[in-house]
Model the fold of this input.
Amino acid sequence: MNKKYSIMCIILFALLCFVGCSNNNKNVMSEKQEKDSKLKVAVSFNPLREFTEYIGKDKVQVEVIVPDGTEPHDFEPKGKDLIVLNNAKVFVYNGLGMESWIDKTLENVDNKDLIVVDASKGCSPIKATEEEKNEQGGYDPHIWLGLSTAIVEGANIKDALVKADPANKQFYEKNYNDFKNKLEVLLKDYKGKFAALNNKSFVTGHAAFAYFCRDFGLKQNSVEGVFGEGEPTPKKMKDLVDYCKSNNVKTIFVEQMVSPKVSETLAKEVNAKVKTIYTIEAKEDNKNYIKSMEENIKGVYESLK
Done:
């Protein structure tokens, strides 16, 4: 009896193991099938990932070429990045000279079906000043930091997703309209608030907010230029100090990817506080694009009141 019982237990255990393994294999296969069924989208850097994931949600699988913490201006793609582009259905980049490596990289991509999206198409670009121009081009590329231009970028991404996956057209359009409406509400709410202020000048560590300023009728002055060329000269620093004092600047905004030392020195010199402002070039404080921009807008508005 004991022997029979033992044999039955062994058989039962083996059956349970078989069922468990079978279920695990099914789960693994199901996850793989789900992953394989998603539209593969490559993007150059973080803000485009945020836009694409907002519009594509669970229908897309997004891979970012430029790692967080790396300047898109200075990035050099590796072999693994070409593999990502070769396997992608859509590739989204910012444009306006933000990614100087784009043309050369795309020449080396062997993917004739790749839908390439210049997200700046249709945006009204802001010219860089003569001292800010360099080999990157003659325009300020930070279009994702203006709400009105982010709406245009989102539309370009939505159109590409629809082209690549027309069966889910309504899904992408619905999500894009939700994205657009949220940004339009922010624009409407704060345009009037900023217009009512006497002081419209603020200071940042990096001159990335020209499109933000255009949306709200503001003026930025910055420690570093459009392309983050490094620490200011003594003359530039003196001019910044004079600017802060004459414009009653009480907050110096600093970005994650810019050294805070000069901004902190400037703040101390003019008796101002230092506050974070998001450029969203990388994932910051675990906030999404809309939350980050909302905090940027509120922070600048409160500093100017």
Notes: The first helix runs from residue 2 to 37. DSSP finds ten helices and ten strands in the chain. The CA atoms of residues 223 and 233 lie 10 Å apart.
